[in-house]
UniProtKB/TrEMBL annotation:
Protein name: GMC oxidoreductase
PROSITE patterns xrefs: GMC_OXRED_2
Organism: Patellaria atrata CBS 101060
Ligand binding (FAD): 88, 236
Family: Belongs to the GMC oxidoreductase family.
Essential cofactor(s): FAD
Residues of the Glucose-methanol-choline oxidoreductase N-terminal domain: 276-290
Organism lineage: Eukaryota, Fungi, Dikarya, Ascomycota, Pezizomycotina
Short name of one Pfam family: GMC_oxred_C
Length: 623
């Protein structure tokens, strides 16, 4: 490779490696990828689905946390994101969940032509391949007949699959219970319009190893493309910017540190930042793109004054309940307590037969639901009253006056969603272990203060919060973490919606056949901090207080370099080009203007695929 490649991609994560793979398909174009972490392609913990929690708060993780969250009583919540080749796709829980047509169409409606569902659906399909269980009995137990052949992915790099344990009673009880409640899945979620309960796939290979950007996109081609170079342990400090004679700001390359040596790399065509929701705005600010007042306070020369860099942060706030199960229902509680016998048996089953609990990642029993309370005539009236809550809430007011237009559009989208009985405002899921909702949600804290016994947890994630936060640098030192302030539950409507969803967990848990798996109230225990009686008998104010004390995150941050027109408060345009800079784009979850309905990884892969086509089209590559 020459000393000046055509493209420099900052970050070899979920989007970065997918994009690098597509851009390097043209052998005449050279691509350099700079990744701050190391390659973990042979790391057993990365490749083994159930071991993903053991990667948190290690060298594989940036190990960031929020500033104290005012609405949560000052709690600080861990924000894991991958610091290794493959990025967060190498340490996530692997749930492969589709977003909705309404959600994606809202991206386009903000002034982003070509980003509507009709145009994006083929990119989602292009990224993955579904591997259905060979055993018909497993397919029946998991009710996988919801899949539509013309929708599901059949030739994409990411491999998705389903669990195959016929002895686990939880998945079928989950589906049968929601059927009893009237919430069976209404269609294929990847159609963009489905809601209800279903078994979601996970980004796990048929051989029960993790499928992620490093081993699915990059590994198959890394030794056959001399025009693609990936440098690990390379911490990018800033994008090199300069002004031409006309005053235009141009990205010419990057400055990074490798082995304690500062290196400047030049790019012939473009620099593409793929650092993720937290590191991409950080890199832009360190480069001189951001709020002029903030940058000047740290002595950073200002090239583009755009206070929207690092703004609009959105994340899925999580609440839930853990219930003690009846004797005979197997859970992962012994493994989470580091019980040697349980871990040894699971390890043997996995290494010898690719069976057992190590084959399963985060969750696969899911449900996408509206607020059930709002579906009655009385509930609709109550909803209309709640929707009058003003949007002038306690989040930091944007410095850019144009951002008010985005605030109005975002609020209108969420009101439309809440009024629609066929659109999900929350994602429910279950997993067979106790959860500690009182802590930060990551690391040793997630395993602390566990009660004895075996449990199943039902969790619910607020999919489209009105609360938005910020991510900003705290110094001019690239090694310093950014200040992350998601403003969890700062908007009062978010508390109202999430509290009602958490209360509905009681209905799920008390409905057969799921209720048959649980010890009854008064006999079975619940997670620490939750009222031990049925939340449906508590006042709504009590439920709200529990939700605020127990809130965590589902680890799905987006929107800090939002794809919105500059006059509406955006950072990149519909071609993912940074406003006010030539030769610079952002491609990762940070460009998503309105957070996804579910887990973000499906959308990040789709965005990377589309970005590759946009770049090729803009620069005349491949013609």
């Amino acid at each position: 490779m020459s000393s000046e490649p055509d493209f420099i991609i900052v970050g070899g994560g979920t989007a970065g490696l997918a994009l690098a793979t597509r851009l390097s398909e043209d052998p005449s174009k050279e691509v350099l990828v700079l990744e701050a972490g190391e390659s973990q392609l042979n790391n057993f913990r990365v490749n083994t689905p159930a071991l993903w929690p053991s990667l948190l708060a290690t060298d594989c993780d940036w190990n960031d946390k929020t500033v104290p969250q005012e609405a949560l009583g000052g709690k600080q919540i861990g924000q894991p994101h991958g610091r290794m080749l493959g990025g967060t796709s190498a340490l996530n829980g692997m749930a492969f969940v589709a977003t909705s047509k309404l959600n994606v169409d809202a991206w386009a409606a903000l002034g982003n032509p070509g980003w509507d569902w009709e145009k994006m659906a083929p990119y989602y399909q292009k990224t993955y391949t579904v591997n259905l269980p060979e055993d018909d009995a497993v397919r029946t137990q998991l009710a996988l007949d919801y899949m539509e052949d013309h929708i599901k992915g059949t030739s994409g790099p990411i491999q998705t699959s389903f669990p195959d344990d016929l002895n686990d009673p939880i998945p079928k009880a989950w589906l049968d219970t929601f059927k009893e409640l009237g919430y069976s899945i209404s269609g294929d979620p990847f159609s963009g319009v489905a809601f209800g309960a279903y078994t979601n796939s996970a980004s796990i290979n048929p051989d029960r190893t993790r499928s992620y950007s490093a081993n699915a996109y990059y590994a198959p081609i890394k030794d056959s493309r001399p025009n693609l170079k990936v440098v690990t342990s390379a911490l990018v400090e800033k994008v090199e910017l300069e002004k031409d004679d006309s005053g235009n700001v141009i990205a010419t390359g990057v400055q990074y540190t490798k082995d304690a040596t500062s290196i400047t790399a030049k790019a012939k065509r473009e620099v593409i930042v793929s650092g993720g929701t937290y590191n991409s705005p950080k890199i832009l600010e360190l480069s001189g793109i951001g709020d002029a007042e903030l940058l000047s306070s740290y002595g950073i020369p200002v090239f583009v004054d755009n206070p929207n860099v690092g703004a609009h942060l959105q994340d899925h706030t999580l609440g839930g309940l853990s219930f003690e199960v009846v004797d005979g229902v197997a859970t992962k509680d012994d493994m989470s307590r580091q019980d040697r016998a349980a871990l040894g048996a699971a390890m043997e089953a996995y290494t010898k037969h690719r069976k057992g609990p190590f084959t399963v990642g985060g969750n696969f029993s899911s449900a996408l639901l509206p607020v059930p309370d709002f579906l009655t005539s009385e509930g609709k009236t109550e909803l209309e009253s709640l929707l009058t809550i003003p949007s002038s809430w306690s989040s930091p007011a944007p410095k850019d006056p144009g951002a008010a237009a985005f605030d109005r559009a975002h609020t209108a989208f969420i009101k439309e969603l809440l009024r629609n009985p066929a659109e999900a405002s929350a994602g429910y899921f279950t997993y067979a272990a106790q959860s500690n909702f009182r802590g930060s949600g990551t690391g040793a804290d997630a395993q602390s203060t566990k009660l004895p016994g075996n449990y199943v947890t039902i969790a619910v994630s607020l999919l489209h919060p009105l609360s938005r936060g910020t991510v900003h640098i705290q110094s001019a030192d690239p090694s310093e973490p950014p200040a992350i302030d998601p403003q969890y539950l700062a908007h009062p409507l978010d508390v109202e919606v999430l509290a009602r969803h958490v209360r509905y967990i009681e209905t799920i848990a008390s409905t057969p056949p799921f209720s048959n798996l649980l010890k009854p109230l008064g006999v079975g225990r619940r997670n620490l901090g939750v009222p031990q009686n049925d939340l449906r008998k508590a006042s709504l104010d009590e439920v709200k207080e529990y939700v605020k004390s127990a809130a965590l995150t589902t680890f799905h941050p987006t929107s800090t370099c939002a794809m919105i027109p500059r006059e509406m408060g955006g950072v990149v345009d519909s071609r993912l080009r940074v406003h006010g800079v030539k030769g610079l784009r952002v491609v990762d979850a940070s460009v998503i203007p309105i957070n996804t309905r579910g887990n973000t990884q499906t959308s990040v892969y789709a965005i990377a695929e589309k970005a590759a086509d946009l770049i090729k089209e803009d620069l005349g590559i491949g013609k």
